[in-house]
């Protein structure tokens, strides 16, 4: 009997692949891809290029022009999607071989923002930012609003070394889960992030209520404003962008996290 159970378990699929709402490897050579109500809506210093790709021939390029000390740089891609309380995003990110996060006054740089369209307050709005670590690399920090009030930013446990010298000139896989809190008084908002399958942010008790009628998300942007600016022109690439409103791999039972990396 035990043997039979083992055989049955062996034959069952470990996990079923959920077809995501959106899956773009940029092989069309453009940002015209759209599916299930997900599409690109605003680009700043963005192109689709064959200069680098994680897979295939094309990837999305983020171009930050060189900026003298005291000035900022900007490159950002926005994506809109149907209104949801929970968002999953996954992408491969190429860290430039000349990546150097300088300290220059306000030096926090946007990394990934998730919000309710029109990016105002009140309205659901959270982001992960990068803080300079003093040696050219970057740590993570969490920013969020609760009912229109900006909350104290902090570094999540595990987020100290998101980008290190050894990441320069390499691809990393970023995955994130964002879940809005269930009510104004509930501290159950979720912001999780994985780098190469390792949790670098595991916040599951956040107050980040969007406001009455505003407690959902329907837009995000990747990278964005760099308050530090970059001394040299700095180019990131993104490939294999996946967006969904549930885990990318459905768990085989409710106790699994749905994360198999
Ligand atoms: Ca590609």
TrEMBL record:
Question: Which keywords fit this entry according to its UniProt record?
Answer: Lyase, Signal
Going by the entry's taxonomy, the superkingdom of the source organism is recorded as Bacteria
The entry lists its GO molecular-function terms as: lyase activity
The signal sequence is 1-18
Report the Pfam families cross-referenced here. Answer: Polysacc_lyase
Record-given protein name: Heparin lyase I family protein
The species is Pleionea litopenaei
**The organism's lineage?**
Bacteria, Pseudomonadati, Pseudomonadota, Gammaproteobacteria, Oceanospirillales
């Amino acid at each position: 009997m035990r043997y039979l159970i083992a055989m049955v378990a062996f034959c069952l699929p470990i996990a079923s692949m959920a077809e995501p709402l959106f899956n773009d490897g940029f092989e069309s050579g453009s940002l015209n891809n759209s599916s299930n109500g997900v599409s690109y809506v605003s680009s700043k210093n963005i192109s689709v290029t064959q200069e680098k790709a994680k897979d295939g021939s094309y990837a999305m390029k983020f171009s930050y022009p060189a900026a003298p000390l005291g000035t900022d740089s900007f490159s950002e891609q926005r994506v809109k999607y149907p209104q949801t309380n929970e968002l999953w995003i996954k992408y491969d990110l190429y860290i430039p071989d000349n990546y150097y996060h300088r300290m220059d006054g306000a030096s926090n740089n946007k990394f990934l923002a998730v919000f309710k369209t029109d990016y105002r307050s009140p309205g659901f709005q959270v982001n992960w930012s990068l803080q300079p670590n003093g040696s050219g690399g970057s740590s993570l920090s969490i920013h969020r609003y609760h009912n229109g009030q900006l909350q104290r930013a902090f570094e999540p446990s595990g987020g100290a070394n998101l980008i290190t010298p050894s990441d320069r000139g390499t691809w990393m896989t970023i995955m994130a889960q964002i879940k809005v809190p269930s009510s104004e008084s509930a501290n159950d908002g979720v912001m999780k992030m994985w780098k190469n399958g390792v949790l670098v942010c595991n916040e599951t008790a956040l107050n980040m209520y969007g406001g009455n009628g505003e407690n959902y998300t329907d837009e995000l942007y990747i990278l964005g404003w760099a308050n530090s600016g970059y001394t040299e022109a700095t180019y990131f690439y993104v490939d294999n962008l996946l967006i969904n409103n549930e885990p990318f791999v459905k768990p085989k039972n409710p106790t699994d996290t749905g994360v198999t990396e």
